[in-house]
């Protein structure tokens, strides 16, 4: 499978990246995981509007879902459109949430563009991918994922504070795509919201993942400091996510 980091900025877009969005491809199937602010624009560098087969949303914070509304409009006006609905796996309430983004209730329009499937912990077969979902530690219902195909696997933390379930989900994965929003040295960061770079590294070490890619990088933090903090706690291959980065697994 191929993983492309479309957006890796945390909380709001940065000058060089949209908010969270990742493209998983295998056997011609394209699965988009999260669709935060600005993701739909950059996503079109890697896949056409009509070429997405399914969407998976970790949670309903704006920096992970807001561009799904733009995508509903894009599918309506696409050449040959309106395009038939594609499945969107998301927490309960996603249709209602997305339908209100435009200011008027567009329930029917969103329901025509997407077929919503409520996420629950456990395994979901999405095209050629096996996706295992687990509950993360975040103020709203949030799922982390282990996306597997042909013996290769990527574990994605979504947004989470410290979380044993993330370690379980990521056990032995080839690649851990873990959020590292906070720094240990930064005062006043609330618990049970996000991981520090050190915590992300410790979770990946406990899960014995092959490599660690730090993501959900908040624009106000120094990236080098994030990388350095994680390096002290993770002995394996460690990278900062950036928009456009691809991994073939
Ligand atoms: Zn977020
Ligand atoms: Zn969040």
What features would you describe in this structure?
The structure is a single chain. The chain has 249 residues and is of the alpha/beta class. 24% of the residues lie in helices and 29% in strands. It contains 8 helices and 14 strands. The strands form 2 sheets. The chain has a 7-stranded mixed beta sheet with strand order 6-5-4-3-2-1-14. Strands 7-8-9-10-11-12-13 form a 7-stranded mixed beta sheet. Strand 2 (21-26) and strand 3 (29-33) form a beta hairpin. Helix 6 (164-170) packs across helix 7 (197-207) and helix 7 runs parallel beside helix 8. The protein is globular. It starts with a strand and ends with a strand. The model has no long low-confidence stretch (mean pLDDT 97). One zinc ion binds at residues 59, 61, 138, 159. Residues 59, 61, 138, 159 line the site of one zinc ion (ZN).
Main traits of this protein?
binds zinc ion; seven-stranded mixed β-sheet; 8 helices; alpha/beta; 14 strands
Shape: globular
Query: How do the strands line up in the largest sheet?
Result: 6-5-4-3-2-1-14
Number of helices: 8
User: Would you report the number of β strands?
Assistant: 14
Low-pLDDT runs: none
Radius of gyration (CA) equals 17 Å
Largest sheet: 7 strands, mixed
What's the pLDDT, averaged over the residues? Answer: 97
Secondary structure: helix percent: 10-25%
Distance between the termini: 5 Å
Oligomer: single chain
Task: Classify the beta-strand content into a percent band.
Answer: 25-35%
Helix/strand order, N-terminal first? EEEHEHHEHHEEEEEHEHEHEE
* Ligands (ions, cofactors included): zinc ion
Derived structural class:
alpha/beta
